[in-house]
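Reopening this ticket.

The earlier resolution said the output was attached, but the attachment link was broken on my side. Pasting everything inline this time so it's all in one place.
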Amino acid sequence: MLKMLTIGLMLLYFSLNLAMADGGHPKTSAQVTDPKAFKLLKEKSIDPKTGFPKTLDPDLFKGKAKKAYQIAKEIPEILAKMPCFRECEVYGHENLLDCFIDNHGAG
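Inline output:
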């Protein structure tokens, strides 16, 4: 059971990273590249019910990016525990969920 869960999480992780490279992002909700500005955005987007930042609406995107934002919206508690290996820390990102607070997750 644990092995299946691990494999499932790995597939999810790789599919999200592929979607992030898809480029299906909107012209609004631009990526925040300043770490200080991103920290403010993250603090303002905290959902009081979950304690996690809210992701952008998946309907703002198309294709793989839309699917990735939908997944991020559904399982923020998992993505918050996963590192992002796309060198996002220069933007102030601390985990994979942070990529979906702005349009960074769409590539």
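Reporter confirms the inline version is readable. Residues 2-106 form one domain. The chain has one domain: 2-106.
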